[in-house]
Amino acid sequence: MKKAILVMLLASPFLFGCVVGGVRSDISDALPFCEDTPDHLDCVLNTNSGVVKELKPTEDAVPTLGLALSGGGSKAAPFAMGVVKRFVDEGWLFKTDYLSSVSGGSYTAFYLYYKAYRTILDDKPPIKAYPGLTRYFLDTRRQNDLTKKEPFVEFLSPDEVRHGWYSLAELPARLTPNNRTACYELPPYPVDDPNQADLSAPVWKYVQQASYQGWVECYQDLLRTGHAHMSKFVDGAGNRLAYAHQLGNTFSVMFAESLITAPVNWFANVAFDWKWRVSPTQYDYLYGILRTYAYMPEEGDVLPVSPYDDYFYQMTKCLDFSDLSIIYTRDPVSTEEKLGGYMPKWILQATANTGNVGLDLSPRHYDLGTDVFEISFDFFGSGRFGYVQGSPFLVGLTVPMAVLSSAAFADTAQRSIHVPRGVVNFGLQTINLRWGFDIPNYREPDSSRRLHSVLIWPFYYLDSPVTTEKGPTIHLSDGGQTGDNLGLVSLMRRGVKNIVAVAGENDYDTKSGALVLASLCSANYYLNVRGYTMDFDGDPMEPDSGAHQNYHLAERCTWDKNRSIYVHPDNPGSFKKLTPFAWKRRVWVGHVVPYTPGVGGQPPLLPKEQMADPSTVPKHLKDITVYYINSAMDQEEWQQVVDEWYPVESAGSEEPLKYQAVGQLGSPKVCKGVYPDKNARVQYSCPLIEYFHDTRTATEDGGHKWVFPQTSTAFTTYSNSVNLFRAYRDLGWLYAGYLPNASDDLRKVLLGDAKNPQPAGLSQLYNEQKPRYPKDTYACRGWNGGRSVQVAEPIPVAP
After folding, report:
1. Residues in contact with 230: Cβ distance below 8 Å, sequence separation at least 6, in sequence order
2. CA-CA distance, 262 to 268, in Å (whole number)?
3. Which residues pair with 693 in a beta bridge?
């Protein structure tokens, strides 16, 4: 024992210098409370009300509209992309006060806000044909009658004409300068007049506007260095394809690099508690997200782009949330010209836990009131640790690291796997798989982290309790682990009157063949303990006929005491079992109403000790309306649409194939891809109809199991395809078109003339005051969005 103590004393100078290796520790002292500091910057809001004091994006007392993008990895991201595309296409984005995102929804939000940031930063000239942000959401799905001759047809061979192509990912290699697929050779920056572009292939001038969405389509497989394939089932000639060997190579490399670094992880993060970020797969995942959603193809770029390019490395270190503030601080004229209006305020949701998640073996679900960690450009924090008014860069949270934290499912903090927590933690630590991100606890001084770094296992557990706000660090992980995988809590806490919830998550229980509505029920429990509940208009399995029986979530959601998480029961007594293949409500409308268990026919769901005190029921939750858009479909209805577009040919007939969507008999004669005017919002797209048709063929003739649109989240993360991405995106775009008809209130907001005003207070926060902990200009010298040579200065607000 004496020898061990002597070794510890001799090693203490080295260990003392380690601090907590993976945690930025610029906070020398615990942050003061805002009430105790005059400038109210970089301080903790001392409030127990649950209401965040922040710079509001609206002058209204009650925010009017919020958009919530759910988690679900690369399954949720394209579904969210379609809804966001609709909001951009229609101009609804600039009437939205808040945008919240979780996990995969944060991929899409990152894509949106980084494009807006670069548009302002690079002073990109407006394009008349594709104003504002629409240039980033344009895809090449055919937008006209396919019986008409396309302007680029003369450059295609007869076989290419018969097959058809809709994306840069399908651009014939022979039309590229180096005879490579378009996933490696994208066109230059879009211009108003394509003839002004220096193009080596004439066909590019007709598709160059789609380079941004084309890039995202190409690189859907986040954990692989190569690009995604067109399909995982058959090629254009009907030959079945298999890519198992390529996936095997990917996982073999990831597993090998994890095992090689495992000893370092055990020494630095198990024997000691230094929080070193030594998980190679965490970097693979992070840079995969950046390569897919944050790369902007520009003229002169050398392709292909490696996910480990210096561009992404610098972005990870230097892209600060306060940098994004320039999309809010520009004068109205410039913002309208470049973007189309003022953006919603972006809030990422992660899960906040104590630093020592390895000791947290509780199977209980997180508490939505305390453990949802919110991150925006002017504040961050949670109910447990308090909310900080200031830039998240203060604790090392750059935009990429916040996105990673929001999407870090493979982490020891997760409580979703039905395996004992101790086994999960041991297994993940053994193979060095820990994707979460540790930040300093801003309620503790840096000296506490230095002392903590000299403690060896198991003594450091005593210095970092797992059930309180104490401890030197805060561990952030996937926002969906709180139970709110929809991103509703941050919007409900602000009393946003109309919330569009984009549920692109994988919510399908394959054993029962039912949707469980776990996230929606979990958010409802958040309301229940505060005296409210959500009542939806009718059973989603029944058509919206006007007359309906309310669907009470307080009655349909049950509390699983073993997992402490809401699940949806299979109770066909008064309601049909929910399935993703008979979902008839493309926008399902729910109303937040007062809830008293056991009173007025309401079920006594909650134990008495969990019931809300009537005197503390928050008033801002009353009269919120949730517009729930789910990645589900009514197969019978879709079958009719597909049959209409793929007519059955009579025996012996041979219809001409030229200019049709796909090279097979029975192809649709007309593609109804993009609405011809703003009064026709519910038209289908060719890629979506064709994916449904191909899926039906694969299940009937190829022995495949039908899972779309509830494809596995894990599958889409490492083995997605261009066609699958496009189908989910277009499904979200289609369903969002029904929003104006969902209610009179929402119609007035979406179709009215009012737009978001310039947010108040930004001038004082970012131009008149300096943060206590400014960005390290030496480490980020030369970084300005990845293209300029100086760090951006704050942009003054017009008087």
Report:
1. 169, 170, 721, 722, 723
2. 10
3. none
Estimate to the nearest angstrom the gap between the alpha carbon of 267 and the chain centroid. 34
B/e letters for 201-228, b = 16+ CB within 10 Å, e = fewer, are: bebbbbbbbbbbbbbbbbbbbbbbbebb
66, amino acid identity: G
CB-CB contact of 580 with 631 (8 Å): yes
Q: Which helix (H) or strand (E) holds 315?
A: helix 310-318
pLDDT tens track for 225-272? 777 777 655 544 445 555 555 666 677 888 888 889 999 988 988 888
Cα(215)–Cα(656) distance, integer angstroms: 33
User: 593 is written with which tokens?
Assistant: 């109403």
Tokens of 557: 């959601």
Peptide bond into 304 cis (omega under 30): yes
CA-CA distance, 740 to 737, in Å (whole number)?
7
Name the nearest CA neighbour of 735 among 645, 639, 627: 627
How many residues make up the chain in this entry?
Answer: 799
Query: How far is Cα of residue 42 from the mean position of the Cα atoms in its chain?
Result: 27
CA dihedral for 586, 113, 106, 52, sign (positive or negative):
negative
Helix (H) or strand (E) holding 9: helix 2-18
The two tokens of residue 49 are 């009300």
Short-list 488, 587, 603, CA closest to 540: 587
**b/e burial code for range 127-157 (CB count within 10 A of at least 16 → b):** beeeebbbbbbbbbbbeeebeeeeebeebbe
How many C-alpha atoms does 243 have within 13 Å on its Cβ side? 21
- Model pLDDT for residues 114-138, shown as the tens digit of each residue: 999 988 888 777 777 778 898 888 7
Residue 113 identity (one-letter amino acid): Y
